[in-house]
Design goal:
The complex is a heterodimer. By secondary structure, chain A is α/β, with parallel strands linked by helices. Chain A is built from nine helices and eleven strands. In chain A, strand 6, helix 6 and strand 7 form a beta-alpha-beta unit. The longest helix of chain A has 16 residues. By secondary structure, chain B is mostly helical. The chains are: A alpha/beta, B mainly alpha.
Chain lengths: ~260, ~280
């Protein structure tokens, strides 16, 4: 295992460290060789085609899927030990839109681990949830049923749920899919605020433009890692072509278009 | 009105039957909320088939039917949770084999008795009018245990029902939560089997909660409504079967009448639901 580079005085240890992380299902590697670090306040885009292993990698960082090789450390501990400091934001349309629960109740769910068993959320939890909803611009829709909100609004509610957890590491799965422009702006602002407060962010996304807006690093994946580094130097046409294979088209000059993956 | 709703219950056996169905209706309604939200009707259905041999064996041994059903109910809950955790092709087939083999074991055992057809009818359709003090106390005990468990685990059960991935990401062991719920469903099925029989138990669990689902935007409201509808179905069904049997000489089985009333309430809810929706959206912007 490579030694971690020496740190300057006052430099915080990284929030997330991946060293040759590999996940396999029944001997078939799903994603392998993921190697990199994410520091507090940094944001990494996971980019790659469908089936590249982005969701699997996120599950591995959450400790929901075991590694078959390499290591993952969250705040210096194995993923299962760090869950209280990690928040996950799924895609809003994976959730049942008919479920009888309000936006506020969904955000309160983020406080449940803190509240513990049997007890109900208290005044402090309600305040934290209210603040989180306000941060994503949905304070007036707190009592609306989750399912009647638009896709973008539901995604914002799920981000508010994560904010209410007060995480050090935030993992998002395609947070901008099918989201309207206003919601997109609000999501970006809220994410920026989380980073300013010291959280590290990892987001799987198809949207290269949004990756540029929201992230300073990128991890290119296609079942194995093709690149991990600052977005300016890593999100290059050739590495994109290597990531997307035949789905990337070279434009005249340096431009690359990725066909809908 | 009084003739219908109050007068039948002046006799002790009807009073006991009423208490039993009020308790069971509320209990089944509360658990039914989670069965409906998580689409677990197949679990309830499986249980009604698999507790049958337990009831038969207990009857043949002269032991408490509740305990016999409970033993098989717990076993089934464990098996179902285990199966659910390992999603593989052929799960449906495995489940079907489990249900039918357990059930036929029960039929084989009971067919060896003299009172075969009478006993079978009781097990399949219940005998709420023959409920005695012991049965009532047993139902009360089960209701208390299930109510305490539901109140204690409510928020985690709702989270797991709404967002299983999110629940796991937060560190909750969804397998343990699923087992807890399956055990609670098993308890309710076991408690209700004696009163309404194995065929009709599933209706008691699913129908009031399904009706409540149409009319509620919150789990808390849905639960209250399901309990009220379950209890109301029990009361009205008993009253109707008594009145029709006594006044018109047409024997209307109590258990089946209760289910008929519940289905009627469901249809009413289905009719009211779109009106309610229109009223609500008119209020909001």
């Amino acid at each position: 295992m490579a030694a971690d580079p020496p740190r300057g005085p006052g430099e915080l240890p990284p929030v997330l460290v991946l060293r040759q992380a590999t996940v396999a299902y029944e001997r078939d590697p799903v994603v392998e060789g993921v190697d990199g670090e994410v520091a507090a306040g940094q944001s990494v885009a996971l980019i790659g085609p469908n089936g590249a292993g982005k969701s699997t990698l996120i599950k591995a960082v959450l400790g929901l899927v075991p590694l078959t090789g390499g290591t993952i450390q969250v705040l210096g501990r194995p993923p299962q030990a760090a869950r209280r400091q990690v928040a996950y934001v799924p895609q809003a349309d994976t959730l049942d839109a008919e479920f009888p629960v309000s936006a506020m109740q969904v955000v309160l769910m983020g406080r449940y681990p803190r509240v513990g068993w049997v007890r109900r959320p208290g005044a402090a939890d309600h305040q934290a949830a209210g603040r989180a909803l306000a941060q994503v611009g949905l304070a007036e829709r707190a009592s609306a049923r989750f399912g009647i909100l638009s896709g973008g609004q539901r995604q914002r509610v799920l981000l508010a749920r994560a904010i209410a957890q007060e995480p050090k590491l935030l993992l998002l799965d395609e947070p901008f899919n099918g989201v309207d422009a206003l919601s997109q702006d609000l999501l970006l602002t809220a994410l920026g605020r989380l980073r300013a407060d010291g959280a590290a962010v990892v987001m799987a996304t198809h949207d290269l433009g949004l990756a540029h807006l929201a992230c300073d690093e990128v991890c290119l994946l296609n079942r194995h890692q093709i690149g991990f580094g600052p977005i300016g130097t890593t999100l290059t046409p050739e590495l994109l072509r290597a990531t997307y294979g035949g789905q990337a088209l070279q434009l005249r000059g340096d431009g690359v278009i990725v066909a809908r993956p | 009105m009084r003739d219908w709703l109050v007068q039948p219950f002046t006799v002790p056996y009807m009073q006991r039957a009423l208490l039993e169905v009020l308790l069971l209706g509320a209990l089944a309604g509360a658990v039914g909320v989670f069965v409906v939200l998580r689409r677990l009707a197949f679990v309830g259905d499986a249980l009604t088939h698999t507790v049958f041999p337990g009831v038969v064996i207990a009857h043949l041994l002269g032991q408490s039917l509740l305990l016999g059903a409970l033993a098989f109910g717990v076993l089934t809950a464990l098996l179902l949770t285990g199966l659910g955790a390992h999603r593989r092709v052929g799960d449906d087939a495995a489940l079907a084999i489990l249900l039918t083999s357990f059930f036929s074991l029960g039929v084989v055992l009971i067919s060896r008795t003299r009172s075969f057809t009478a006993d079978l009818t009781v097990f399949l359709f219940g005998r709420v009018l023959a409920i005695d003090q012991t049965d009532l106390l047993q139902t009360l005990a089960v209701a208390t245990v299930v109510a305490i468990a539901l109140v204690a685990l409510r928020k985690e059960l709702v989270l797991r029902a709404f967002d299983p991935e999110g629940a796991a990401a937060m560190g909750y062991r969804t397998g343990a939560l699923d087992l807890a719920l399956n055990l609670l469903i098993a308890l309710v099925v076991v408690a209700a089997v004696e009163a309404v029989g194995t065929i009709l138990v599933i209706a008691l669990i699913v129908v009031p909660a399904a009706a409540a689902r149409l009319l509620a935007d919150r789990v808390a409201t849905m639960t209250t409504l399901a309990c009220l509808l379950g209890a109301a179905g029990g009361w009205l069904g008993l009253a109707a079967s008594y009145r029709v049997s006594v006044d018109h000489g047409i024997r209307l089985a109590a258990g089946a009448t209760i289910v008929g009333v519940l289905v009627g309430l469901f249809l009413l809810a289905a009719a009211v639901a779109p009106l309610r929706r229109r009223l609500l959206t008119a209020d909001t912007r």
